[in-house]
Write a structure and sequence with these properties.
With about 250 residues, the protein is an alpha/beta fold. The chain is built from 7 helices and 12 strands. A 7-stranded parallel β-sheet has the order 3-2-1-4-5-6-12, sandwiched between helices. A 5-stranded mixed β-sheet has the order 8-9-7-10-11, with helices on one face.
Length: about 250
């Protein structure tokens, strides 16, 4: 049994994970953290701040806000409870804080918790190694709902980073071509964002060569895919020592 603290428990993802865990005999949410504890369902105690939480846990899942990071890092370092950081939008300074905290506690951070997205990252690296030397252009198009504030998505950037892990020389990320009139440079990697309706999350990585196009795609039809990945990550992190982990570790077991 993996005992979980759910940060952001009353948000959309927090509620989704609560439903997933309720049907999972190998996991249990022992406490929730939320700035609006009055909306708690009563399935577990909910606190406004981590410092109030007294329940023992095997892992912490965070789907809240970058503003909560300092408290989460302090809690994990003090209690040695591994943290699964699913929140996006961290600043470079905050990312550095996570790296520093990982010297004292275990943290898993991913821009996308979907097992499917993290699997195609490996496919994209392999495709880049084969197709980039042959002159294929690479573009990423991501689509999300009209409530999403950041663009491009953290997942799109993570996909681009996966490409650059194996590209030699690395690509330059291009987010806007509207201010110039010039042909595409060979080492451009265009990243385009679409916002509309209730799109949960679509990502296409396009390898465009001469007379052929290969597209590696992922479609999320509900937030449950991210919740399932987060729960799998929490189970994996149980008992892990200090260090930085990612979803590739979860997939490889």
């Amino acid at each position: 049994m993996t005992r979980i603290i759910m940060c952001g428990c009353n948000g959309a993802m927090g509620r989704t994970i609560s439903r997933i865990v309720a049907d999972d005999p190998d996991a249990e949410i022992v406490a929730g953290i939320d700035i609006e504890p009055k909306f708690a369902t009563g399935e577990y105690p909910v606190y406004k701040d981590l410092s109030e939480c007294k329940e023992e846990a095997d892992a912490l899942i965070d789907f809240s806000s970058p503003k909560a990071l300092d408290g989460i890092l302090s809690y994990c370092k003090e209690t040695k409870v591994p943290g699964v950081l699913c929140t996006t939008g961290y600043s470079e300074e905050q990312l550095a804080k996570i790296e520093e905290a990982s010297k004292e506690a275990a943290f898993l951070r991913s821009a996308n918790m979907s097992l499917g997205v993290n699997t195609i990252m490996d496919l994209i690296r392999k495709a880049t190694q084969v197709l980039a030397p042959e002159g294929f252009d690479i573009e990423i198009v991501e689509k999300h709902h009209n409530k999403k504030a950041d663009a491009p998505s953290g997942t799109a950037l993570a996909l681009a980073d996966s490409i650059n892990e194996v590209a030699d020389p690395p690509y330059d990320y291009i987010f806007d071509r509207s201010q110039r009139r010039a042909p595409r440079e060979k080492k451009e990697l265009g990243i385009s964002a679409v916002r509309g309706g209730t799109i949960v999350g679509d990502h296409d990585v396009i390898f465009a060569g001469e007379d052929e196009v290969i597209t590696i795609s992922h479609r999320a039809y509900s937030k449950a895919v991210f919740g399932k990945g987060a729960v799998s990550a929490a189970k994996y992190m149980k008992g892990k020592g200090a260090g930085m982990y990612n979803m590739s570790d979860v997939i490889q077991g």
